[in-house]
Amino acid sequence: MPRTIVSGRLSPAALPIGLSVSRLLSVKYAAQRLPVSVLISARVDYVVEKEKKKILACPICYNSLAALISQPHESAEYPASGTHLQCKYCKKSYSANETHLDLTVASGTKQYTEPLPLSIELYRNPLVSFLYERGWRQNFMWGGFPGPEKEFEMASEYLKHVLGGNIIDASCGSGLFSRLFAKSEHFAMVYALDYSENMLRQCYEFLKQEANLIDKKIVVLARADIARLPFLSGSVDAVHAGAALHCWPSPSSAVAEISRVLRPGGVFVATTFIYDGLFRFVPFLKELRQEIMRYSGSHMFLSERELEDLCKSCGLVGFTCVRNGLFIMLSATKPTR
């Protein structure tokens, strides 16, 4: 299992947004690092060109979504409030507001609610969402995280075999890495997903302010559950999850979903905290982890082998990682047929 230690200084990068339903349902794969052209149409019955590929799917039955546009002319840069997508099979509808699509299973419910783990609810808080890029994320450097720009460079090394395709930035938060991926022009489409409505609003605002992003329309913002990803099976080239794996209530369910949506040869890259080293000598650490998970919903990883086993059990191969203190960046690949 390859292993390296992080070193070197940080170097910059950055990123964007925009949303058109007709565009969401069609993605052009760029074979080279060239400016991405995206088809925009306000007509529901527009015939998608052969070189475009539909990848958004119903999170209930995983069938394709069709556009139901309630307004005759939709903004090419921002989603029209009231725009809908509908599953072709189960007829479930999903709506868009000013900032993002809601592609969760419970989208549109008015009476139903369910309690969520603290690790999820914390990031739905408006104050935490506001502070995330204004000091919160910067504190991760104390745990060995190299910083967003350096982490982006490291992730790009793992992703170099899927350049020109599409990428999901899972649990994107305020869009820190979504913007970096978009600005790099390495990907035809960037799908910024988060369960927190407030994080997506912050992501939207940061994208609007991003002056260095040429084509904001390549970024799609969507509210989604990491355990029910709204994508067709085998339709995604890459999935990135920055400082998120430990926040997922069930990492195995999440990684299994990531494996489902990745195409053969697709790449999964993630960063998280790992508590090994001196932490191995803490008495009853495994028992303590169970209690922490029970009350917070957060997951503590205690070894590289645990993460490798997680990826392998979900059908991913070629596990490799980079370590620095409590920080770990891991990568695994969907096997080719």
UniProtKB/TrEMBL annotation:
Q: Name one Pfam family in it.
A: Methyltransf_11
Q: Where in the numbering of this chain does the Methyltransferase type domain appear?
A: 169-269
| Database matches in Gene3D superfamilies | Vaccinia Virus protein VP39
The record's InterPro entries line, in alphabetical order, gives:
Methyltransf_11, SAM-dependent_MTases_sf
What is the protein's name according to its record? Methyltransferase type 11 domain-containing protein
